[in-house]
Amino acid sequence: MRTSLLKGSLWVTAAAVLTFANVSSAQNTEYQEQQWMGMQSHVGKLTGHAGDAKGDYRRYCVGCHGELGDGNGENFPWLDPKPRDFTLGVFKCRSTPTGTLPTDEDLFNTIARGLVTSNMPQWNTFTSQQRADLVAFVKHFSARFQTEKPGEPIQIPPEPPVTPERVKAGQEVYNRVQCWKCHGVEGRGNGPSASTLTDDQSRPIAPYNFHDEIRFKCGTTDQDLYKIFMTGLDGTPMPSWSDNIKPDEAWDLVFYLRSLQPMKSKEKEFAKQLGLKPVNPNAPAAQPPAAEPTPTPTPPPPPAPPGSQP
Q1: Quick one: which H or E segment has residue 41?
Q2: Residues 62 and 138 placed together within one structural domain of the fold
Q3: Residue 216 DSSP code
Q4: Last residue of a domain, one of 90, 115, 147
């Protein structure tokens, strides 16, 4: 009997300790955030202040991203894809190399632009100052912004003129680096790997459908698409291709992907003129043209025997 009472007491004590630890952890997180509320952002001539965005965040953002910025707002169970966990300091849309923090301007633009194929709308009704303040507020959730600086934005070379040859070359890049495995042979987002993809939180995630969508995840321009190739979408299976694709090849890929989109475009017209078919992953790799055979030199005639007449 005494042993049973002792065991019961130990279980109650252990449960109380765990409960207290969880509460302390939550309070510590809130304490940290209060300490980081002095976070600022700098976008052009604007300076954003985290403390000035409290009201806007609570009114417009907390339902999805949560009080602690961890993506666990009250709408979380019904959203797909799930809201971004700001505490991780990992963001899809950046002008900076993979693995680095975005610039303040990157976050500023994302707030206004929204994220297509997600529940993140375009918040272009905010003033520029409100957006700058919200950038600072988003940053204050993550310890990374306390110790790290944003990466250096990548250099985007001038966009070359689009030509039929470049559209065709872009298709060859699409096939060579196996974009079709996720995005499908027609860019519909239905490649053989599509159903197996997960994000950095091990949650299912769908690849982008070029065939049906007009806006990209991180913008609308050719430069935006170029940046996606070269920086990757951190937190997703979309890697940076900066080590595998040359700048010229990246532009070719931009032009080819434009030809897959539903709207009219010069790229789409060129693809039609070329009669481009969807990539065929089972086709043998193109072989370089055979070299011209080297002609065999004619041997010189043997020398005439001594004393013979020429």
Answers
A1: strand 40-43
A2: yes
A3: B
A4: 147
Is the pLDDT score of 25 beyond 70? no
- The answer to whether residues 122 and 113 touch, using CB atoms and an 8 Å cutoff, is yes
- The residue-averaged pLDDT of 262-279 equals 96
* HEC per residue, 86-125: HHHCCCCCCCCCCCCECCHHHHHHHHHHCCCCCCCCCCCC
**Mean of the per-residue pLDDT values for the chain?**
87
Residue 140, SS3 per DSSP = coil
Closest CA to 94 of 289, 271, 238, 262: 238
Specify whether the CB–CB gap between 86 and 142 falls below 8 A: yes
Which pair of tokens denotes residue 12?
């109650």
Task: Using the predicted structure, report yes or no on whether residue 212 has a pLDDT greater than 90.
Answer: yes
Residue 216 phi, psi (nearest 5): -85, 170
Stated as kind and residue range, the H or E segment containing 42 is: strand 40-43
Amino acid 282: pLDDT = 84
Domain of residue 269: give its range: 164-274
- Furthest CA-CA distance within the chain: 134
224 or 11, higher pLDDT: 224
Q: Which residue has the higher pLDDT, 3 or 183?
A: 183
* Residue 219: count of CB within 10 angstroms of its CB: 18
Select from 110, 72, 47 the least CA-distant residue to 102: 110
- State how far the alpha carbon of 186 is from the alpha carbons of 17, 172, 182, 215, in Å: 56, 13, 11, 17
In a shared domain, residues 201 and 256: yes
In this structure, which long-range contacts are made by residues 239-248, counting pairs with CB atoms below 8 Å and at least 24 apart in sequence?
239/98, 240/97, 240/98, 241/177, 242/97, 242/98, 242/154, 244/177, 245/173, 245/177, 247/157, 248/160
* Structural domain total, the chain: 2
Q: How many CB atoms lie within 10 A of CB 171?
A: 23
